[in-house]
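Hi everyone,

Forwarding the result from last night's run.
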Amino acid sequence: MHEISIAQSLIDILNDNIKDIPVENNTRIVNINLKIGKLMAVVPESLEFCFEVLTKGTIMEGAKLNIENISIKAKCNNCGHEFIADDYLFVCVVCGKSDVEVISGQELQIDNFEIE
């Protein structure tokens, strides 16, 4: 389960981003918007569980992870056709060649977060 290391990385990144913000006693992070590509093989429920466990007693406790799943998009290096490869079939649907480049689906990023 790599979700625990992803959750810890999210916490570290968020802590780095809020360190210069004046934090009051009742300040907390309430929403975290993530973009996660299908190739990252993240199980959203596992990530949410790990995040919940790791944020107990912090300003992130109770924050909602809003996950946008990014499809796998590929581009054929032979004919230039772009196609969705969510079935993990990396063969161009136009020319049948397997010389393709993945152009999306590997994302793992914090899009933004909301502080209350």
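The domain at 3-71+104-115 is CATH 3.30.2320.50 (hypothetical protein PF0899 fold).

Cheers,
N.
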